[in-house]
Amino acid sequence: GAGSPRAASGTAAVQLRQRLEKELEDIRGAGTWKNERVIASRQGPHLRLAGGGAGILNFCANNYLGLSSHPEVIQAAVEALEKFGAGLSSVRFICGTQSIHKDLEEKIARFHQREDAILYASCFDANAGIFEALLTPEDAVLSDELNHASIIDGIRLCKANKYRYKHMDMQDLEAKLQEAQKHRLRLVATDGAFSMDGDIAPLREICQLAQKYDALVFIDECHATGFLGPNGRGTDELLGVMDKVTIINSTLGKALGGAAGGYTTGPKPLIDLLRQRSRPYLFSNSLPPAVVGCASKALDLLMESNAIAQSMAAKTQRFRSKMTAAGFTISGKDHPICPVMLGDARLAAVMAEDMLNRGIYVIGFSYPVVPKGKARIRVQISAVHSDEDIDRCVEAFTEVGRKHGALP
Ligand code: PLP
């Protein structure tokens, strides 16, 4: 058999173990320990948790369009697996490019109405790769202070001059753009939609400033692709600036089937350069065929009809208006990320736990994930929630809110 684990001996190993145990204790002591609940069913609006807990109503996945367990998406994955195998055992430029990878890149570019696209193992990788490949010490990048961790890390890896502007603050962005005029190229980088607050970047204003100060605009559309805008193309479609945003990074791991993968889409020479220079692309394995199959089918479904995206918007509206009427404050606007603002960290934790006792899975967020005093429970709406699911969630919130003093 496998036997029991072997503990490494020697002073260094013992010291390391002590240091790690102390660090883990500190995390527990700070109250920021992250527990992982184990799901024993497919991802979807109704879950079964390991060790019991059937029929749990799920409001905390990024499964915005309900495609993660869509029968046609699963079937497409099975077919791709059978035809193209388990995986490529190679990076793209050695022997890891199949016809399905090229087809998916072409489909992504068409979906976003851009010239070309390049696939990565994740959007984290797409963000890690782009800034270093594109920007030199002669250039500048201007980044919203609340951008996703992967954008922050990607920017850290590049040698451009770095400016951080206050969250969605156009005055501050303008001041930083003025300061950055001395550099060869300016790139404004922002999340299209911010995942903690459910707020949407003011892209019209950002693009106007970019035009005024001769800058390029980059958006991370992980929480927008597939469902924001009349046809689900994203924040740029929603705000009417598809022709003004130069570069889009996004994920295949949320609304677009939820398997994994990310991409950059934009001008052809940029995509060509990324294939030559982007380190997470050059030095990491190709996306597995089944994963490619899922995303490709998800895009087909979205390009056939905008009904799924529209249905999600209607459900989001139902939840936001009923919760507001019940007396809760919901942050953001018109986005399926609906943060129920509670303020107190303990209140958010206790209420989330009590919601689960009532069969509703939601997650509380507190400092350091969000600012002190701004603890919240984040609810995420999906197109596959029924009106009854949403009403049940609102009723449970109302009961739990009254019980714990969040509502009068
Ligand atoms: N960017 C944003 C805004 C995200 O929310 C995420 C996902 O957590 C990522 C990037 C990373 O995407 P992926 O899961 O494909 O690595």
UniProtKB/TrEMBL annotation:
Annotated TM spans: none
Enzyme Commission (EC) number: 2.3.1.29
Gene Ontology terms, MF aspect: glycine C-acetyltransferase activity; pyridoxal phosphate binding
Top-level taxonomic group: Eukaryota
Record keywords: Acyltransferase, Pyridoxal phosphate, Transferase, Transit peptide
Gene3D superfamilies, per the entry: Aspartate Aminotransferase, domain 1, Type I PLP-dependent aspartate aminotransferase-like (Major domain)
Catalytic activity, as annotated: glycine + acetyl-CoA = (2S)-2-amino-3-oxobutanoate + CoA
GO biological process, one term: L-threonine catabolic process
GO cellular component: cytosol; mitochondrial matrix
Entry annotated with the keyword Transferase: yes
InterPro entries xrefs: 2am3keto_CoA_ligase (IPR011282), Aminotrans_II_pyridoxalP_BS (IPR001917), Aminotransferase_I/II_large (IPR004839), AON_synthase_class-II (IPR050087), PyrdxlP-dep_Trfase (IPR015424), PyrdxlP-dep_Trfase_major (IPR015421), PyrdxlP-dep_Trfase_small (IPR015422)
Cofactors: pyridoxal 5'-phosphate
Ranges where the Aminotransferase class I/classII large domain occurs: 56-397
Pfam family, one: Aminotran_1_2
Family in the record: Belongs to the class-II pyridoxal-phosphate-dependent aminotransferase family.
Protein name: 2-amino-3-ketobutyrate coenzyme A ligase, mitochondrial
Organism: Dromas ardeola
